Amino acid sequence: CFPGLFKDKNNCRLPSRLSKKRSGTKTTPIPFFLLDSPTERTPKPSDELMLLQAGLGIRTVNVPEDAGHNEIANILSETYPKMSDLEGAWMLQKAMGGSGQRKLNLLTPEEEGYTGASLVKSWGGKGCLYIMPIQNTLDISPLPFTAVEFQAMPKA
What is the CATH number of the domain that holds 42? Predict the structure, then answer.
């Protein structure tokens, strides 16, 4: 900067050597519901409690919008430790409209699998996305309250 060239010497500032901080990846909280077995309809309210006690059921997961399929699979496996038994054999479904038991519709994955952007778009801010095992059936016996699945739950 050459202060002699400027009438207002206050305009002469040294260039900032600090690079701008890159903003963090945008995440969207999406509710997921892990089902215990392949089914065509959403679970009955009485079954939801049983699934929740087994470490399945509904949980809200922060999904990075730039996440690829593997990252999403890892995030869901951390949220639902029982998903490791599925060895990647799961699909996402969405229930349309209404209340009570509803028909589940397949969310078709992209060529590279499910991505953060596609999940945010498919979810649309309503309801939740259902994780359905393709071949296996997950154990639904109640877990002790000290189980890993309950560590992230809010305390009363």
Answer: 3.10.20
